[in-house]
Write a structure and sequence with these properties.
The complex is a heterodimer. By secondary structure, chain A is mainly α. Chain A has 18 helices and 8 strands. In chain A, strands 1-2-3 form a 3-stranded antiparallel beta sheet. A 3-stranded antiparallel beta sheet of chain A has the order 6-7-8. In chain A, α5 packs antiparallel against α6 and α6 runs antiparallel to α7 (189-211). Chain A is globular and about 85 Å long. The model of chain A has no long low-confidence stretch (mean pLDDT 88). Chain B folds into 2 domains: 4-121, Beta Polymerase, domain 2 (2-Layer Sandwich), CATH 3.30.460.80; 145-207, no CATH class. The chains are: A mainly alpha, B alpha/beta. Chains A and B meet through α2, β6, β7, β8 and α15 of A and β3 and α3 of B.
């Protein structure tokens, strides 16, 4: 009869320190992981220095998806840039659209009606659900649990059908405009979203059962990639990654925008800051997002879905353009010269699925931004790898990467 | 925007001024005081998060040409401040690094160096981050054309395999189109802001 032995996975960093003193230490080997590797979730390349199976150095190489979005922004009007925001965090394009629109609206000093805000909140939270479903699904795959991916992708497919109905596109939604949206919700769409949310709850529970108490999953993620609260703040981590380290910072609560202060939801906080906690935080955020969407549907206000006083900013409606001279001229000016935004500087932060997405815009007036800087949360999440990876095993790297839940589109911009 | 914090900062650090802002408190500080301002913000005012580091290029004929922009946030008090510092040298702009105070600054400063060419004094690892290592230009500077400039391939072996081909400017015939807001009406048709090659100007030879 086999005797029970306890296997401890803790204190890998401590063991790595021992190896430093060890005279038997072998030659270091440099291993390139990526830019094309399934575990790097995109075109991330890691130059890993390996001592046997233990990592002694990590140098992330990014920029393979650099498209120069900030340069492009300086050369086009505010509305023309909306499609480029889809391609930042391409797993949650709707949330990026909303963040960008609010940033420019702050600059212009305009507000949007309540109905528009409520639709935007549904958009943001559905984007969060979509992004977390993908994040958790592929995280399961990274740790060897292939089944979760099938569950989450089935749900994402339903979400894409809803996005298509709302915006006309599955992936690249470009749904917001400065001062409003491209269109109102289609008839019956809210009912279908509600139905989706209701049937998602048992699926999330099932996902929970598949992973949360899964012995293999726990062994692979607990005590791996521990980020202390201090480190998380020092490296500028935000979103679920920061909250998993035990720091309560959610922009939706701290600096409410878009009417988030009127919704009732909880912010899950981790305690250990390891890969397992980051997973747990995302799992709970999924449930909270469903709550927010259902509240927004329950109290969806009537009224306009765009700001009709922002004459030089939001394009007039088509029926007016075709029948009235003034609206025709307005339409022409907004399309050719861009929405007229006053001079000034704003910095707007939004709580996106991956963390805090921020836009810093410097305007000299007119239809084109003078300087637009995008702060991508994934950029900061990846910068901690240099500090986090050394001391871990090579096989922990996919788990750490999966738990940070980054996307290269907004890292490289 | 008026703020007690900015007033205190101006009193404490000579040469700093209030900065125009539409949202959060903002201040201009001299470049050589930047590090002590950041230290003060971090240690005494509780700004424990460096959210963003960037810079603005005011174009070639303006002096000072570059302004570094920093956004600090407090994760507990939930307030923000924007600090701006002008670079003294217009040709070889330089700012002190904040990487020792905030490790987050490391990559942000590398990015600003990569795209705008601002050198951060004392930075532990000032390499390009988004563009490749030997890239000769700073693409976010205002004089750099949107379409790009012809350059060598990043890797010599790739260039050889491609038969000496080069990285060429992008076609701009497709836009982005918008009308300039100044100048004669006849010139104000919507047109691509930058035209590197089009029907009249042929595509650069890339054989």
């Amino acid at each position: 009869m086999a005797s029970e032995t306890e296997i401890s996975y803790g204190d890998i960093a401590g063991r790595a320190a021992q190896y430093d003193k060890d005279e038997l230490r072998g030659e270091e080997m440099v291993l390139n992981m990526g830019p094309s590797h399934p575990a790097t979730h995109g075109v991330l390349r890691l130059k890993l220095k390996l001592d046997g199976d233990i990592i002694s150095g990590c140098d992330p190489v990014i920029g393979y998806l650099h498209r120069g979005d900030e340069k492009l922004a300086e050369n086009m009007t505010y509305n023309q840039f909306v499609p480029y925001t889809d391609r930042l965090d391409y797993l949650a394009p709707l949330a990026n659209n909303v963040a960008y629109a609010i940033a420019v609206e702050r600059l212009a000093g305009i507000d949007v009606p309540e109905r528009c805000k409520a639709i935007r909140i549904i958009c943001c939270e559905l984007a969060r659900i979509s992004s977390h479903l993908l994040g958790l699904g592929v995280y399961g795959m990274d740790t060897g649990a292939l089944t979760t991916f099938m569950y989450t992708f089935t749900e994402r497919e339903k979400l894409y059908t809803l996005f298509e109905e709302l915006t006309g596109a599955r992936f690249t939604t470009s749904y917001t405009r400065i001062g409003g949206l491209t269109r109102d919700m289609p008839d019956g769409w809210m009912g279908r979203v509600n139905h989706f949310c209701n049937q998602l709850i048992p699926v999330v529970d099932e996902l929970d059962k598949l992973l949360t108490r899964n012995r293999i999953f726990m062994d692979r993620t607990r005590d791996i990639g521990i980020i202390s609260k201090e480190d998380a703040l020092a490296w500028g981590l935000t979103g679920a990654n920061l909250r998993a380290s035990g720091h309560d910072l959610d922009i939706r609560k701290a600096q409410p925008y878009c009417g988030y202060e009127n919704y009732d939801f909880d912010v899950p906080i981790g305690s250990a800051g390891d890969c397992y906690d980051r997973y747990l935080v995302r799992m709970e955020e999924l449930r909270q997002s469903i709550r927010i969407v259902q509240q927004a549907i329950a109290k969806m206000p009537d009224g306009l879905w765009y700001n009709d006083e922002a004459k030089k900013i939001f394009k007039p409606q088509k029926d007016k353009v075709l029948t009235s001279m003034e609206e025709l001229i307005q339409n022409f000016m907004i399309v050719t010269e861009g929405p007229q935004i006053p001079a000034g500087e704003v910095y707007f932060e939004a709580e996106n699925p991956k963390g805090v997405l921020a836009f810093f815009i410097h305007s000299k007036g007119g239809g084109v931004p003078y300087r637009l800087k995008i702060r991508g949360p994934s950029f900061c999440s990846l910068s901690i790898l240099e500090h986090l990876c050394p001391g871990h095993m090579m096989s922990d790297v996919p788990v750490i990467l999966g738990s940070l839940d980054f996307v290269m589109g907004e890292c490289d911009r | 925007m008026e703020s007690a914090l900015v007033e205190e900062l101006i009193k404490k650090f000579e040469g700093s001024t209030q900065r125009e802002s539409l949202d959060i408190p903002a201040a201009n500080v001299p470049a050589d005081l930047l590090l002590s301002v950041a230290e003060w913000l971090r240690n005494e005012q509780g700004f424990d998060l460096l959210m963003d580091v960037t810079a603005i290029d005011w174009s070639e004929d303006v002096s000072p040409r570059f302004t570094g922009i920093y956004h600090f946030a407090s994760s507990t008090k939930h307030n923000y401040i924007r600090i701006a510092a002008d670079c003294e040298d217009d040709v070889e702009p330089e700012l002190p690094t904040l990487a020792k105070l905030y490790p987050a600054a490391n990559w942000h400063e590398r990015e600003t160096y990569d795209l705008l060419g601002i050198r951060y004094k004392g930075h532990p690892d000032l390499r390009r981050i988004l563009m490749w290592d030997d890239y000769p230009y700073f693409p976010l500077r205002k004089e750099f054309p949107l379409a790009g400039i012809e350059t060598e391939f990043p890797a010599a072996d790739v260039a050889e395999a491609a038969g000496g081909a080069k990285v060429i400017p992008a076609p701009m015939m497709g836009g982005p189109f918008h009308a300039p807001q100044t100048g004669a009406m006849s010139k104000r048709e919507p047109r691509a802001a930058d035209q590197s090659w089009n029907e009249e100007k042929p595509k650069p030879n890339n054989d």
